[in-house]
Amino acid sequence: MYTARDIASLRVRRREWAAAGLKVGLVPTMGFFHEGHLALMRRARELCGRVVVSLFVNPIQFGPGEDLASYPRDLDRDRELAAAAGADLLFVPSEEEMYPAGPPSTRVVPGEMASALCGRFRPGHFDGVCTVVAKLFNMVQPDVAVFGRKDFQQLAIIRRMVRDLDFPVEIIAHPTVREPDGLAMSSRNSYLSPDEREQAVCLVEGMRLAKRLYNEGERSCGRLRQEVSSLISGYPLARIEYVELVDSRSLAPVERADDHTLLALAVRVGSTRLIDNTILADRDLP
Ligand code: AMP
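Above: inputs. Below: predicted complex with adenosine monophosphate.
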C-alpha cells in the first residue's frame, strides 16, 4: 500500500490507474480504524480494481467546543489495518495540503436535510462534511465511494449532493458494524470509561424496544419516541440529545410510523456523544 500526503502524488497514481482501465473506489474516513471502517474498505475492494482510503480529521466539520483536538489518532496502526483490508493507497493530507488558503471561503452547503437531526445540534457540520467530500471526489475522482449507514444523515446528504451537483460517482451504503452487545462501532467509543461503555448499550436497547413495539403494531411516533426516551433516561450516565422518528428518504419528521420510518438517536454517555439509527421495519440488530 502506498501512502500519499499530497494531492500531486495521488493524481499521478490516479492517472496510471485510469490508463490501465481500473475502477477506483474511495472510502473517506477520519482514521482510528475499527471493524466498521475495515468493512467499508473490503466492500470497496470487492467492487473496484483499486481502493483509496482517505484519512483526514477535517477541522471545518467540528464546531467550537467539540473534540477536534482530542480526536483519537494512530497513523501507524491505521496504515497496517488499511493495507490488510485491501487498500492500495492511503491518502493522508495535512491541513495545509487540504486548505492551503486557510478555511475555504467556497463551501458546499446542503439544503433542508441538513437542518434535521444532528444538524440542529451541530450547526455548520454538514457544510464541512460536504465541502471536504466534494474536494475528495475532485482529487480522487472515484468511480465508487463507500459510506456507512451508521451516519445515516451524512449518507443521505451526500447522495443528494452527488445528484444535485452531478458528481460522476456511485454511492454505496454499508450496514452498521456493531460490537457483540450491539453498540455501533465508532472511533469515539475509545473515550468511554468502563462504566460508560456498559451504559452505552442504551442506544441499541432503545432501538430494540422501538422495533419490538413497531412489530407488535404500534404506529404512533409520539408513543414510540416516549418509550425509547424513557428507557434511555433509565441509564444514569445517559443524556438524550434527540430521539427522532423521520422518513428515511426525506428525513422529515413523521407522526405515523411505516416501513420507511427511521429511528435516529443522539445520546451523550458521560461527555461522549454517540449516534445510532435504524429503520423500524428492518431486522438489522443483533
Ligand atoms: P469516520 O472515520 O467516523 O468519519 O467514518 C468514516 C466512514 O466509516 C463513514 O462513512 C462512516 O459512516 C463509516 N462508519 C463509521 N462507523 C461505522 C460502523 N460502525 N459501521 C459501518 N460504517 C461505519
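The pocket of adenosine monophosphate is lined by residues 29-30, 36-37, 40, 147-148, 150-151, 174, 176-177, 184-187 (CB under 6 Å).
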